[in-house]
Specification:
The structure is a single chain. The chain is of the alpha+beta class. The chain is built from nine helices and four strands; from the N terminus they run ααααααααβββαβ. The chain has three domains: 8-97, no CATH class; 110-150, no CATH class; 166-238, no CATH class. The chain is elongated. The N and C termini lie far apart (103 Å).
């Protein structure tokens, strides 16, 4: 059997819950009235063309977070527009929060930077580890990455392209390859061919049924006799 205290406790909880719902419903009603009055004021203020200021956007962003029925009360713009304002404000907040501030690592003195450049310029064969070690001997404690950052960059001659290399060495380039030739008796003969790149000229070819490394070496020797060619090929590549 339920005691009198339990009954009074249940009645008190029910009363407090009803009172809380009443205040909550009244607050939601006031927020909806605020949203409607704000839209009416904006329409009268910016007629004939609607124009919202940052305070108007901020108000609707706040309402979208605390008013569950804000989409139903919104008339002047689309709900997606308010969501876009919220995202933009979120990005601006984190941009401000991540802004660059003073502090961090101390700057490298100008004298140390000039010393690193002078040492690297006077000793072009020294790399960052060697210069870093010499600075430590002088009592200058900087990292090797800092030394590499402030070293004098020596100009490097541009390297030639592959097309330029082929053009400059065309007279001493040749290609060689095999291809298979079937005979009338269904045998396979291997044809070895050497092509000179300078004139796209066939320098040498021969046929064998059993190609070996010794045979290929002999064919290359016969293809480029040193007493006949003005520019013997120095590079051989597979065609």
């Amino acid at each position: 059997m339920v005691s009198v205290l339990d009954m009074y406790a249940r009645i008190s909880l029910l009363f407090l819950s009803t009172l809380s719902d009443s205040f909550r419903g009244r607050a939601m009603l006031q927020l909806e009235l605020l949203a409607l009055r704000h839209q009416l004021a904006v329409s009268e203020r910016t007629s004939p063309r609607l124009k919202l200021c940052p305070a108007d956007r901020l108000l609707w962003v706040i309402l979208s977070r605390i008013l569950p029925t804000w989409r139903d009360a919104l008339v002047i713009v689309k709900p997606e527009t308010v969501v876009g304002w919220h995202r933009k404000g979120f990005r601006l907040f984190w941009t401000w929060k991540s802004r660059r501030r003073r502090g961090g690592r101390p700057a490298i003195p100008r004298e140390v930077r000039d010393l690193i450049r002078r040492v690297s310029r006077d000793n072009p064969l020294w790399g960052a580890p060697r210069i870093h070690g010499e600075l430590l001997k002088l009592g200058i404690d900087v990292s090797q990455a800092t030394v590499s950052k402030y070293m004098t960059k020596l100009p490097c001659p541009p390297s030639q392209s592959w097309r330029t290399f082929l053009h400059n060495h065309m007279h001493c380039l040749a290609s060689m390859d095999f291809f298979v030739l079937p005979t009338a008796t269904f045998r396979l003969l291997f044809v070895f061919i050497v092509l000179h790149h300078e004139r796209r000229r066939i320098v040498h070819f021969d046929v064998t049924a059993h190609p070996t490394a010794i045979w290929v070496k002999q064919q290359i020797t016969e293809a480029f006799p040193w007493d006949r060619l003005r520019y013997p090929p120095l590079f051989l590549a597979d065609a």
